[in-house]
């Protein structure tokens, strides 16, 4: 079920990534927040593994959560950099 949630979040992220061009950071922040939510799920799994005494799995899951967060940050930055606010050209207005 958690895999389904991560896949659903990823699909939502793809849709949000297409929403650039607004001249603000809202789209990038939304994507980053979705990745953070997915990382939180993985961190909860790591906590469960650690509580069960499986340190190796817990460490692997923590690394995965960190990678998810880093990916979210990179995607946010890419979206924000591509999000250009276009001002009307004064010479073309009549």
**How many H/I helices?**
3
Radius of gyration from the CA trace?
A: 18 Å
Q: Please tell me the overall pLDDT.
A: 80
Structure classification = mainly alpha
Bin the strand percentage. Answer: under 5%
**Biggest sheet details:** none
Q: What overall form do the CA principal axes indicate?
A: elongated
User: Between the first and last Cα atoms, what is the distance in angstroms?
Assistant: 58 Å
Order of helices and strands: HHH
Number of strands: 0
Q: Helical residue percent? A: over 70%
Low-confidence stretches: none
Quick overview:
The chain is 74% helix and 0% strand.
Keywords:
94 residues; mainly alpha
Written account of the structure:
- The protein is built from three helices and no strands.
- With about 90 residues, the chain is mainly alpha-helical.
- The chain has one domain (about 1-20, about 25-80).
Strand and helix map with partners:
Layout: H1 2-17, H2 26-51, H3 55-82
Helix pairs in contact: 1-2, 2-3
């Amino acid at each position: 079920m958690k895999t389904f949630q991560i896949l659903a979040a990823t699909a939502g992220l793809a849709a949000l990534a297409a929403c650039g061009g607004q001249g603000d950071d809202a789209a990038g922040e939304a994507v980053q927040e979705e990745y953070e939510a997915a990382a939180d799920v993985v961190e909860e799994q790591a906590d469960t593994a650690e509580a069960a005494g499986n340190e190796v799995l817990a460490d692997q899951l923590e690394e995965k959560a960190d990678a998810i967060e880093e990916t979210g940050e990179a995607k946010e930055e890419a979206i924000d950099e591509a999000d250009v606010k276009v001002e009307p050209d004064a010479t073309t207005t009549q």
